[in-house]
C-alpha cells in the first residue's frame, strides 16, 4: 500500500521547485521578459514582482528602473509634441488678436475720417 506522499515504485518523484532555486541566469531572463517592452505599449512597468522579496528586488530592480525610465522619456516626448502644438496655436491666436485690434482701430477711425472727408467736400 502506498500513501499519498510516496510515489509508486519505479516512478520519479518531482520535488517542489521555487523561483529562487532557479539559476540566476534564468531568473535574469525572466526579469528581462517581464520588464521589456515587447507589446509596444507605453505603460509603466508593474512593480509587483520586485515587491515579492528582497532578493528579487535586488536582482530585478535595475531592469525595472530602466523600463520605467524608458516609458517616462517616451511620455515626456509626447507631452513635448503636444506642448509645441499648443504653443503654435497660441501664437496663431495672438496674431489673429493683433489683426482684430488693428481692424477695430481702422473701423473706429471711420467716423473721424468721414468727418474730415465730409468737411473737405463741403468746404
* Total number of strands: 0
Number of contiguous helices: 2
* Integer count of domains: 1
- Sheet-strand content, in percent, reads under 5%
- Report low-confidence residues grouped into runs of 5 or more: none
Overall pLDDT metric: 82
Characterise this structure.
The chain is mainly α. The chain has one domain (19-122). The chain contains 2 helices and no strands. Helix 1 packs parallel to helix 2. The protein is rod-shaped. The chain starts with 23 loop residues before the first helix and ends with a helix. 4% of the residues are buried.
Concise synopsis of the structure shown:
This protein is an all-alpha fold.
Write the layout of secondary structure elements.
Blueprint: H1 24-35, H2 54-122
Helix pairs in contact: 1-2
What keywords describe this structure?
123 residues; 2 helices
